[in-house]
Specification:
Chain lengths: 83, 243
């Protein structure tokens, strides 16, 4: 079973903890290099008017992802008090 | 005899500023990522040695996802710089050390240059360089290329490394048992072909990952160990950047 839901489904301002990455090959490698690694905390920063792409803050850098990729990255919402 | 130093690091960590400072050249620098499209070269003279300094393109990784990562990777693997300076941003070490760990798999002649230390101090970030150096197994120097802080220390360390006065044991990432087992099987075969001329553990990992582009580069290397230079002329103006 996959824990959490795809990261594009969360709301702006949500703090998320990445649980798994279902992407394959080069794109998987690329996103890992950009900091989308299981266990890492990211934040939903901004959504385009039509909801795609969505911008995320990862290790102090903002990165926008298309739904193609962000639908394959799973995360759970973090409790604000915990952070 | 001249030695080579390669500058590697993420985009926008001040590699080009350091390069200009070391070589006295005026390669264009600016506060946006991805400026160094092809590598730039310059000369550095210290009291004891002369160096060729090569400013590699800034990348988040050396797994050859793009042309500029390929340039940086091929240089470190096939041209084997005497020293690789890994330039990282003091204000975001967590992101930057990914590339450092990749470099440690490719070469043990590395120095970690933590740049923008002035900015980190302003932000209240304290870096324990002795502890970091102990854990990573290589020299760690805190610098600010912009404010010219730590440069003398850096030059001293470079000279000492060339003179064989510094022993490095770069931290090696340990993978899952299954992967380590496969590396163990592959590595002797790779060593039998390349000896110590290429890093066998790193090559094993790349082969296990099914890196076809690397296989092509290896074939070219076997035919002509100096192929990188001629190949890189072709890369000019054909590099891509960004996510």
């Amino acid at each position: 079973m996959i824990e959490g839901k795809p990261i594009y489904q969360y709301q702006v301002g949500d703090q998320l903890q990445i649980t798994s990455i279902k992407l394959k090959n080069v794109m998987r490698r690329r996103l890992l290099d950009l900091g989308f690694v299981p266990g890492v905390t990211i934040e939903v920063v901004q959504k385009s008017p039509l909801g795609d792409p969505v911008a995320f803050k990862v290790f102090h850098t903002t990165i926008a992802l298309r739904k193609e990729e962000s639908s394959l990255i799973y995360a759970k919402k973090m409790n604000r008090e915990v952070i | 005899m001249s030695h080579t130093i390669a500058l590697a690091g993420n985009p926008n960590t001040g590699k080009s500023t350091l390069f200009n400072l070391l070589t006295g050249l005026k390669q264009h620098t600016g506060n946006w990522p991805g400026k160094t499209v092809v590598r730039a070269e310059g000369e550095l003279k210290t009291d004891n040695h002369i160096y060729q300094v090569i400013d590699l393109p800034g990348t988040y990784s050396l797994y050859s996802n793009s042309a500029d990562e390929e340039v940086a990777r091929d240089f470190i693997i096939f041209e084997k710089p005497d020293i690789t300076l890994v330039v990282v941003d003091a204000t975001s070490l967590d992101r930057n050390l990914n590339l450092a760990l990749q470099v440690f798999e490719m070469t043990s002649n590395a120095i970690l240059c933590i740049n923008l230390i002035d900015e980190a101090r302003r932000k209240g970030i304290h870096i324990d360089k002795e502890e970091l150096s102990r854990q990573l197994g290589i020299p760690v120097i805190l610098i600010s290329a912009r404010e010219k802080i730590g440069i003398i220390q850096l030059l001293k360390t470079i000279d000492q490394m060339i003179d064989g006065k510094i022993q490095t044991h770069p931290f090696q990432v340990q993978y899952a048992d299954e992967v380590e087992q496969k590396i163990h099987e592959l590595q002797p075969k790779i060593q039998a072909i390349f000896g110590d001329s290429l890093p066998s553990r790193w090559l094993s990992l790349r082969l296990l990952d099914g890196d076809k582009q690397l296989l092509e580069a290896l074939k070219a290397y076997i035919r002509d160990p100096n192929f990188v230079h001629s190949q890189q002329q072709l890369v000019k103006g054909d590099c891509c950047h960004g996510a």
